[in-house]
Amino acid sequence: MKHVLGLCLRGMFLLVAFSVTAGCSNVPRASDREDAGGAAIAHAAAQLIGTPYHFGGADAHGFDCSGLVLYVHERAGLEVPRTAEEQSRAAHPVPLDAVRPGDLVFFRTHFHANSHRVDHVGIYVGRGRFIHAPRSGATVSYASLKDGYYRRHLVSAGRFWDGR
Fold first, then answer.
1. Is 120 in the active site?
2. Of the residues 3, 43, 65, 112, which is catalytic?
3. What is the pLDDT at residue 133?
4. Strand pairing category for 104-107 and 141-144
5. Torsions phi, psi of 91, nearest 5?
6. Which of 101, 108, 119, 116 is nearest to 40 (CA)?
7. How much is the pTM?
8. 58: how many CB neighbours lie within 10 A of its CB?
9. Rounded-to-integer distance, Cα 66 and Cα 68, Å
């Protein structure tokens, strides 16, 4: 009886997991085990689309760009630094032409006289798109690396999940 109950519970878990992941067709699914961590991160970020921007925010009430990255990675059991600049330095570098879902894309949007600091981050989800918390008054949303603004300001990519 315990064995049958265990099989039923496992089947229910798989059904629920499939139902939850099937609803997010904008995020590509991992095709192999190596990319599963990145796909989970991309999927978790997609679930937060529409959440308000909040400067310094790192919870479901509101996010800034690096707070979104922190929150999603914490849910995946990964520790990441708090700011976009710290995240860019700590992440394992990924060539820009080899980014995969779940990787982080880093931008330099404000140019200061003596600063080359990264000041914005997004979570790559595939097909040239990423999810980010763009600015005050906006919500967590998709953006495209093909967009002229983001293409001009993109400086690097990196990852914290194990897909090296």
1. yes
2. 65
3. 98
4. unpaired
5. -70, 150
6. 101
7. 0.79
8. 17
9. 5
Mean pLDDT (the chain, rounded)? 83
| 43 catalytic residue (yes or no) | no
Letter for the amino acid at 102?
Answer: G
Structure-block tokens of residue 138: 């906006």
Each residue of 20-65: pLDDT tens digit? Answer: 344 444 544 444 455 689 999 999 999 999 999 999 999 999 999 9
Record the tokens describing residue 46, joined without a space: 């997609």
Which residue is catalytic, options 73, 92, 116, 132? 132
- Are the CB atoms for 39 and 29 separated by under 8 Å? yes
Annotated active-site residue in 8, 54, 120, 153: 120
